[in-house]
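Quarterly update, task 2.4: SN-glycerol-1-phosphate-bound model.
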Amino acid sequence: MSVPVLTHLQSIRDAQGAAYLVLIDPDRKNDGSIEDRVRSVNQSGVDAILVGGSLMMDGKTHERVARIHQLSDVPVIFFPGSLSQLCPHYDAMLFMSIISGRNPHYLIGEQVIAAPVVHDMGIETIPTGYVLMDGGAHSTVEFISGTQPIPMNRPDITVAHGLAAQYLGMKVLYLEAGSGAQTPVPVDIIEQVKRRCDIDLIVGGGIRTPDQARERVEAGADFIVTGTIIEEAGDSSLMRAFSEAVHWRSS
Ligand code: 1GP
């Protein structure tokens, strides 16, 4: 792709209201469904694939990422759960810091270890502040990173993190309720962060219906991520419905 992946997604956002990203977990449990999932992505108006997960249960992650990249018609973006998933088969990566946490290893430690390898591989980096919110289920990220999520009733704390990310020069803020969350990030939090912060917003975690996605786009989300519900649905019609809901300007 000649333009950077982030620029490409921003131009989709500008033209169609928001961009829609599907998360594929390259773990063993998805080994048999990866090809079908990527083919569905290609046919359903999805704008990019995020690849990542907090825990890998075998050693074949890189081989699965290569398969995803080979089959995908859209950019494949690394959403790092851990450095063990870093490999050259990505078009870009969210170069993330868990800014809602106070664990120095996930604030800067992993990034320092990764940076020379990323440089060597030539992967586009998208500077991203990752904000974990309390979606009502103890998420794997919470456990692995050893960090506390921000309560959903504290838009003030969330806005403060968004401003900090902006002033640190990050390009994107990822408002994350946690994969499989019972409650997605509330609309009013997205509205307040959007009103106060000048930074693109990824919103994900616990989004289970196209209506929920659309409400979050209307509140100010630039990019919507779904993972679990797409895994559970197992067909492309739901992806298509999400794509139409997110791309509200073209529907
Ligand atoms: C997780 O935000 C993503 O990091 C997707 O969450 O699996 O709940 O859709 P779900």
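Highlight for this quarter: Residues 104-121 form the longest helix (18 residues).
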